[in-house]
Amino acid sequence: MCQTASKPVNREDIIFESMEDSMLAEDHIIICGMVENIIHFVMPLRTDHCQDPSPIVILHDELPTAKQWQQLSNFSQIYFVQGSPLQDKSFDRVNIKKAKQIVILTPNVGSEQQNRRQQQENQAEEEEDKSSKDQEDLLDAKTIFKYNIIRKKNPKVNVVTELINQYNIAFLFDNPLLYHFMSVYGYDQTPVFSAGEVYLSSLIDSLIC
User: Is the pTM of this model over 0.85?
Assistant: First the structure.
């Protein structure tokens, strides 16, 4: 069972231009990006055993879809700020300095995967593999760019990062020796993966699709 609001929340009441220095956004969780079935991500954060659930602030460049809003409207303390996580100032607007955790979701993973499937029906196998790899690396590059902005803005905040390609985990290392460590023991033995600071899209897809 989950903790829900006593009545559905009005959409207009949770959309903010900025929450910088807002009392509503303190010791909160920032979610960068959206997925279609966002409810499966939010529900564990609103279980009954959470006596003092943390506020959730979603930072995304597009407003929630009708389906996403229908899922979120029954929960309290969920707020939305429209802005690009690729811009430094957007994180000031979600009060990053007072956040306790940030989750970076890969942008448009579902639509990108659908586009790739459509392309794969019309292209040769070698071209398909190269196109898919390039698209995945581009999405991961955006995620890593956001990660670096966050670390610069608030080095102490706990960051959980979603990547598509396991080899791109190496770009999150702060110690060059870990590159060799990963090549020998695998990505799943690296400190960032073992500590739950990074996960692969294949895992989140299996949980929320």
Answer: no
Average pLDDT score over residue span 69-98: 94
Per the prediction, the chain carries an average pLDDT of 85
d(Cα 15, Cα 12) in Å, to the nearest integer? 6
Angle formed by the axes of helices 109-120 and 125-153, nearest 10°:
170
Q: Tell me which residue of 46, 17, 31, 21 sits closest to 98, measured CA to CA.
A: 21
Phi, psi of 177 (to 5 degrees): -65, -20
- Sheet with 78-82, side-by-side order of all strands: 15-16, 78-82, 56-60, 28-32, 99-104, 158-163, 198-200
Q: Is the pLDDT of residue 207 over 90?
A: no
What CATH number labels 11-208?
3.40.50.720
Q: Are 121 and 47 in contact (CB under 8 A)?
A: no
Do residues 168 and 198 make contact, with C-beta atoms less than 8 angstroms apart? Answer: no
- Name 58's bridge partners: 31, 80
Q: What pLDDT, on the 0 to 100 scale, is given for residue 62?
A: 92
